[in-house]
Design a protein that fits this description.
By secondary structure, the protein is an alpha+beta fold. It has one domain. It has a 5-stranded mixed sheet, with helices on both faces. A 4-stranded antiparallel sheet has the order 4-3-14-9, covered by helices on one side. Strands 1-7-6 form a 3-stranded antiparallel sheet, with no helix packed on it. A hairpin with a 2-residue loop joins strand 11 and strand 12. It is globular, with a radius of gyration of 23 Å.
Length: 331
């Protein structure tokens, strides 16, 4: 049974877990009397460095709470995330840091953490709110058009396409859409994570390792789905999907390690990476950040936050050359 409460407990909820960001504590801040350990937080463009305690970082009031009509607060998601975070922390601290490969049960917990890390953030919540909001607007426009139609048109249309919300319609009602728009994480995370986990089970897992002194960074949107070949496609087809054979899912788990999930069978187990790969990963994670990046030091490399020009074989540049050569019509 889900735990419900009328009190204000667990109102401040981390959309990036506190346990997750602790490995990025500045070494100079750890073990100092009268000083709370802190990480360094930068704007995603590399500006405005400031110190923040993980306890006070990346929180939002009731972002996972399921409100009930009687005023109670259902905290099943918050408590479920805490249990998964405990498992992840033990596996990271006692297994990955020792470069011991996790057993099957541990690997399931790690992949579940990766899946939820992508689905539970404020950035993902806001994205899905926009998607459901656009659908709601279309349904409301249709409702207004239907309400102002003549009786004959209403009868003809209802015979083939019942109104959203009518008992004859097998799909979602307008109220359903509004509920998903307001609480997308609460309504979507279970089926989304189940689908992602099925995909992960068909992919290969590696842990990328580095001893770079600055190390890997993370962000307020720490798990990235990135397809390094998508820039060759028209923008409409660039959405990163797990079905793509070139998709790469990455989640830094500390400044020295990053989980890497792909269809590439050449990446399995612990893999030592060169500095250029560290820089490429940090550029990727800074670019996918919502607002902030997290570092273990008050220092970043400019390369990580400097926008790049599209490669010469990018779809836009190839198309522009073909238009200039008269090979295709620009209209």
């Amino acid at each position: 049974m889900a735990k419900k409460t009328r009190t204000g407990s667990h109102k401040k909820q981390h959309f990036v877990p506190q346990c997750y960001t602790k490995p990025w504590l500045d070494p100079d801040s750890v073990g100092k009397p009268k000083l709370d350990p802190y990480v360094w937080v930068f704007n995603k463009d590399g500006t405005n460095p400031r110190r923040r305690s993980p306890a006070n970082l990346f929180t939002e009031t009731d972002i996972y709470t399921i409100p009930a009509a009687d005023g109670t607060r259902d905290l099943r998601l918050e408590h479920g995330f805490q249990q998964l975070e405990d498992q992840f922390t033990r596996i990271r601290n006692l297994t990955l840091t020792q470069k011991r490969w996790p057993n099957n049960d541990q690997l399931v917990y790690l992949l579940a953490f990766v899946a939820t890390a992508q689905a539970r953030t404020r950035a993902n919540r806001d994205h899905h709110r926009q998607q459901w909001g656009r659908l709601r607007e279309r349904l409301e426009d249709f409702q207004r058009s239907f309400d102002s139609a003549s009786p004959a048109k209403k009868k003809a249309f209802a015979a083939v396409a019942p109104l959203p919300g009518s008992t004859a319609e097998p799909g979602m009602t307008l109220d359903d859409v509004k509920r998903y728009e307001e609480y997308p994480i609460q309504n979507m995370i279970a089926p989304v994570v189940a689908t992602v986990m099925r995909c992960f089970s068909q992919m290969h897992v590696a842990v990328l390792c580095t001893d770079d002194p600055l190390g890997l960074i993370t962000s307020d949107n720490p798990c990235t789905w990135f397809d390094p070949e998508s820039y060759k496609l028209p923008p409409f087809y660039r959405g990163a999907g797990l079905g793509s054979r070139t998709i790469e899912v990455t989640l830094p788990v500390s400044p020295s390690q990053c989980i890497f999930i792909s269809h590439n069978s050449g990446f399995k187990g612990f893999v030592n990476i060169e500095q250029r790969v560290v820089d490429a990963l940090n550029y990727r994670h800074a670019a996918h950040a919502d607002e902030s990046i997290v570092c273990a030091h008050n220092e970043i490399r400019p390369f990580w936050v400097t926008p790049r020009e599209a490669p010469e074989d990018a779809w836009e540049k190839v198309r522009a050359r073909k238009i200039a050569a008269g090979e295709i019509d620009h209209r």
